[in-house]
Amino acid sequence: MTAFWSMVKKDYQMIFPKKYTLYAIAVLLFSISFGFLYLFSTVTQVPNATQIHWMYTWLLFALPGFSSALIYYEWNHKTMGWWLSSPYPHWWLIATKCTAMFLRTLQILSLIFIILNVNIYLFTLIKPNILGNMSWEVLILNQLKLMGEYLLYAPYLITLGIFGGVLNFSYIKFVSIPVWFLFGITSPFFIFRRIATMAKLNWDILDTSLWIIGSISLLLTFIFFAGSIYTIKNKMEI
Amino acid sequence: METRSVGPLTFTIDFSIPLYEQIVEQIRHAIARGEIALGTKLPSVREMAQKLKVNPSTVVRAYLELEHDGLCEKRRGQGTFITTSEETVYQIKRKLANEALEAFVQTMRSLGIDQKTAQQWLKEMDWECKKR
Amino acid sequence: MQKAVELRHVTRRYGKKIALHDVSMAIPKGKAIGLLGENGAGKSTLLKLIAGIMKPTSGEIKVFDETPNWRIRERIAYLGDLSQWYKFQRIDEAIQYAANIFPHFQIEKAKEYLDFMKLDPQRKVEELSKGQTMRLQLILCLARQVDLFLLDEPLSGIDLISREKIIDLLIELLSEREVTLIISTHEIHEAEGLFEHVILLQNGKVVKEGDAEQLRVEVGSIQKVYREVFQ
């Protein structure tokens, strides 16, 4: 295995060390089933992806937390010396963490997708009319679209978490305030976009095209990435 | 100070004196006293360093010094051996004895004792030092 | 004298606190160097600056005639106060990971060292005692074929057996090939025989420096030198 990928693998394991993976999956399974049951009991139908989106949407709030945990791990377990003294450029050290987190995101999304749809299927066995007049194709397609959209935000959210984490161990800690503030505005924005029709929100800004949102998200990804490199290179308080 | 033995040799290392000097001195004395047979292979640098807990380069330096004296010789690929020449050993013994004698004379003179008296006392001296 | 590291007017601050104050010195190449001083004297800071994991506030550092950069880190193995190994790996996984990450990592040598240090490759890092963890970390560091080793307090706060084994491993390394080894410690007695050159730091300044054997002639044991300086 090349150095890059073995470091990615290490970071990947670090997000949820093996001993917690089981708990994580159990919690995930439980919360999803519970959420589904709740929806079922209130509306008796799976109306459309506007409600089951919550099964995925929580990730928009959790992602930066997960990725900054990668930096906190290195600090709390005092492994930062190995990380920072490894003979690779700084962008590389940040890139492995982002890649690892992105792979985790894909893994979590696919897990949700599988567990959720198996759950819905099981419910149709009990209540065949649960899907109402929505076909399986539409249901699946809606979910895939939603996942695609969230994957577009993922790099921004991941690098934001990394940057926030790095800043926390630097002299320029105060910069993390606007960074987390930005997170505080954007994640609700992503959600409002999703629930706009249902909540009857007639805000023009919510109609912004996905292309523009995607471009801005990529731009911010780049800024946070560069910011993280600059910080570990020059401003670390170790 | 701790006493440590390496193969046929025993060392007492005192950290307040240059370490390589002590290694040289103690090997020299061991040879002079005949504690190690002529032609014996000295412990390897690594073994010596491990046992004495000193830097290997200190041992290398000590071995070089012994080689310089002619007390040891390095055989390529085999290690360092104690000389087989009895003549060299005799000379070293003589040199060490002379050093001791010089010190003895110095002390006697500083006590104001002349050569004749010193010789007489030396004769009366219990050579095995049993009384003490 | 060939130089491994050279510092010119190096100052490092942490906020208002000064960790190193205008230090200028040359560290000889190919020797075992003892970096001695009380806690907070600036030893860790100095090693971090040499390892290039942080930059001096002012002044200049040259390691093998280069300003520390990521490429030069291929020639430096650093074991510092923030160099605990990843707890979720097993020992053999750790060795494999190190072999993947570090250029010039000698995996056979590492396995040999494991044996020497009496560590079972199947054990998990999180199960190891403090002394055993330090032994493992030292193996991961010393199995790298590099020119400069920076070891920050490898002997502090661990059991006697581990300390002895660590010293043995260091002697083993030194008899294998010529390297520059900088060890910071305040456990002077045990490592006394290892040092060829010593640097004494106090309040961020170099207060004494010199050849170990020379200091033994002038003052006595390194422990005595240390006492004289710090009393």
UniProtKB/TrEMBL annotation, chain A:
Entry keyword set: Membrane, Transmembrane, Transmembrane helix
Organism: Thermoflavimicrobium dichotomicum
Official protein name in the record: ABC-2 type transport system permease protein
Bilayer-crossing regions: 20-40, 52-73, 108-130, 150-172, 179-196, 208-232
Record's keyword annotation contains Acyltransferase: no
Automatic annotation (TrEMBL), chain B:
PROSITE patterns documented for this protein: HTH_GNTR
SUPFAM superfamilies the UniProt entry points to: Winged helix' DNA-binding domain
Residues annotated as domain HTH gntR-type: 17-85
GO MF: DNA binding; DNA-binding transcription factor activity
Superkingdom classification of source: Bacteria
Signal sequence coordinates: none
Pfam families given in the database record: GntR (PF00392)
Protein's recorded name: GntR family transcriptional regulator
Key words of the record: DNA-binding, Transcription, Transcription regulation
UniProtKB/TrEMBL annotation, chain C:
UniProt keyword Hydrolase, yes or no: no
Signal sequence interval, chain numbering: none
Entry-linked SMART domains: AAA (SM00382)
Single Gene Ontology MF annotation: ATP hydrolysis activity
Record's keyword terms, sorted: ATP-binding, Nucleotide-binding
Alphabetized InterPro entries for the sequence: AAA+_ATPase, ABC_transporter-like_ATP-bd, P-loop_NTPase
Residue span(s) of domain ABC transporter: 5-228
Stated name of the protein: ABC-2 type transport system ATP-binding protein
Species this protein is from: Thermoflavimicrobium dichotomicum
